[in-house]
Write a structure and sequence with these properties.
Largest sheet: 7 strands, mixed
Structural class: alpha+beta
Distance between the termini: 26 Å
Helix content: 10-25%
Number of strands: 7
Length: about 120
Amino acid sequence: MGAFVISKRNNDEYKFVFTSRKGKIIFTSLSYELKFECEEDIEKFKQDIASADFLKFKSSNGKYFFKLMSGGNHFATSRKYTTSLRLQKGINEIVLYGSKSEILDFSENDFIFSD
């Protein structure tokens, strides 16, 4: 199952990525000034995933990507894929697992590791 991972950008704004079951990033959100806005949008997206739109594009260098639209607004942009089949597999992963995926918060730098 995938996961939504919240982190902080270099400019101190928040973002999240959706990762596949294998840990590969499928899409990255737009920036958020406040962390709770980020968390709210993830929850809204998880509830309304069936109504999300995936606008597919092909870049000038031949790579495939999609823009994720939720509620008519641009929500996130996918990573680049080498084939349209891989792009569709990324979309399928979101549709199948997005609503059940956990939210991980890596936005603070106070991680504690133990052995």
